[in-house]
Amino acid sequence: MKNFHLPLPDHTYAQLRTEAERTQVPATVLAREAIDVWLGHLSRVQRHAEVLSYASETAGSDFDLDTDLESASIEHLVNTGK
Which of 4, 36, 40, 81 is the most exposed place for a label (fewest CB within 10 A)? Predict the structure, then answer.
């Protein structure tokens, strides 16, 4: 684990301290969890953007969805009632 000094605006610090007191969880734990959640969100947003970009670039090309796979997927969904 690494230490990281993070100056916070007064209102952010006050909110963090209030939540730490309310939940009886150390402010550092809350901050660490909040940063982890935010970084996970950024990762998902970036991955989604990359998939959309790839899909747009390859639409209609040989790299587009395999028609056999698409047919098998539709058949599976119909047969399983999903």
Answer: 81
- Neighbouring C-alpha atoms within 13 Å toward the C-beta of 48: 6
Query: What's the chain's average pLDDT?
Result: 93
CA distance linking residue 76 with residue 39, whole number of Å: 35
Alpha carbon distance 64, 61 (integer Å): 5
In sign, the C-alpha dihedral spanning 16, 19, 25, 29 is negative
Q: Which residue has the higher pLDDT, 71 or 18?
A: 18
Cα–Cα nearest to 63, from 73, 72, 71, 53: 53
pLDDT at 60: 83
* Cβ proximity of 24 and 13 under 8 Å: no
Domain range list for the chain: 10-80
